[in-house]
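As promised in the previous annual report, we have extended the structural survey to additional targets. Below is the entry for Pentatricopeptide repeat-containing protein.
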Amino acid sequence: MRNTPTIFEFCKILGSIVKMKHYPIAISLFKRFDHVGIIPNIAAFNILLNCYCHLDQMHCAFSVLAKILKLGYDPDTITFTTLINGLCLNGDVKKALQFHDDLIRYGYQLDAITYGTLIKGLCKIGQTETATQLLSKIESKVMKPDVVMYTTIIDSLCKDKLITRALDLYSEMVVRGTSPNIFTYSSLMYGLCMVGRLKEATDLLSDMVMRNIDPNIYTFNTLVDAFFKEGRVKEAKSLLAVMIKAGLKPDVVTYNSLMDGYCLVNEVSKGKHLFSTMPQMGVTPNVRSYNIIIKGLCELKMVDEAMNLFKEMQCKSMTPNTVTYSSLIDGLCKSGRISHAWKLLDEMHDRGQPADVITYTSLLDALCKNQQLDEATALLKKIEDQGIQPNVHTYTVLIRGLSNIGRVETAKQVFQHFLIKGYHPNVWICNAMIWGLCKVDSFDQALALKSKMEENHCLPDAVTFETIIRALLEKNKNEDAEKLLNEMIARGLLNMSLSH
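The corresponding structure token record, generated without further manual editing, is:
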């Protein structure tokens, strides 16, 4: 244009392009400034820095900083925060901390956004302890930490299930005059719900109301989901009523939590009813919605109805994921339709959906129940060859299947392979192996494995004792059985056994 606009107008254009994440285009346009005689200002340089940071070209970003200094501009807090954020985004948090220390040494002042960025970077890579130390340092030497800094650390602690420490930091924050916000409460509620401390989570809801902070849909969804997962349907419904009364409309996440909760307490019909009413309420079911109902139907062996929903998904151009296929394959296997399960596995591969350990374990379980143990053993090898890590349940299923038909030596080899692979045995796999050993009267080996469990901090349970005691009694080894029974009583496991 004649009468070239000011640099501020060009910064607006560049800023808009960056918001759309077209970083290379913004860099290309910036480079044209020289050719048309436009002199960039510090704001323009900051935009350029931001582009290089998002493209993981930190050497270019620091070259821009060098140019800023060479041209005699004063870098501002946005400049430094952008560089620190770039280092954190690209996983160089250690360099970000070092850069921060260099800036302080040279006398530059940083603001709350800079420190918030550093704390976020540290928490993202699991360095929550370092972030907490930085928070203390900020408070004692630099400025009063703001709610964002506190909330970022609280959120990280909650995700690590360090709920007591998160609550302590929350209390410290309030005592020091920083008011919590909706995100602080949401993080704490999520953490408390994760560890089953639902009473404290609902108490926080009351605390929010007292502070005139309106709970949002995420807050209620977190609580409703947690109560349903605990099987506490009445409390979940009460919370839903409070949410609707507060003027919040249930969304797809709310419906998914409700349906999942009903399926967990074997009320799949209620889950289905909710699923069918979602469109009438202006809520569109997503892939997770279908997965919840498909899984619930498959667990009740209503596989044909689940397959109809699967076809409905495809008709609506929704892409079934690994969870969808795994649920259907599991349902088909448990219904004895193994050939259909294999066919669906082939379709899954053809559609580019990778099968996971859960998918293969369902097939392996079906093979074992069908006494196709050679095929099951071959499948385990195939899983490992594909780079999929079998889990403890996978090995337990195979060991139980082999023991069932008396192939205990092979089961022992599988158990040994499991240990060589570096897996940590749990009580389930040990009990499966002990059951197999007792079946062929290898009592010494069964008792040795029971002792080994304790050495590996995997405590025998009532089933462990009961399995060996029953086998000993069947062989009239009453004295040995009585000795184990006394040990069981001393451990307080007899009542658990009776309850089973």
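The chain has a mean pLDDT of 90. Residues 128-141 form the longest helix (14 residues). These points will be discussed at the next consortium meeting with the crystallography subgroup.
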